[in-house]
Amino acid sequence: MLKQFEKKGYWEIPIETFTFLLGIPRNYQVGQIDQKILKPALEEVSVYFDHLSVFMQNQPSRIEIIII
After folding, report:
1. What is the dihedral of CA 54, 6, 21, 45, to 10 degrees?
2. Run of H or E residues at 14
3. Low-confidence residues of the chain, pLDDT below 50?
4. Residues 30-47: pLDDT tens digits?
5. pTM of the prediction?
6. Rounded to an integer, what distance in angstroms lies between the CA atom of residue 39 and that of residue 34?
7. Could you point out which of 27, 37, 47, 53 has its C-alpha 20 to 30 Å from the C-alpha of 63?
8. In what order do the strands lie in the sheet with 63-67?
9. For residue 64, what pLDDT is reported?
10. What is the pLDDT of residue 23?
11. 37 contacts 29 by C-beta, under 8 angstroms
12. 57 CB-near residues (< 8 Å, 6+ apart)
């Protein structure tokens, strides 16, 4: 993960992998992940990172999370 971030300047991950790595329940929808997990986490770590942001990119067959 860190190597991809180091080379590209961002980390791109399919939503399925992201939810698996964080142990997010399968019944959470994308809006719930954003509201209950991503927004609180960003608020918490924004003290340490000035330009951290998360984008959800819809693609025809999957949703990807991009962390910059």
Report:
1. -50
2. strand 11-14
3. none
4. 888 889 988 898 889 888
5. 0.67
6. 6
7. 47
8. 11-14, 63-67, 54-58
9. 67
10. 93
11. no
12. 63, 64, 65, 66
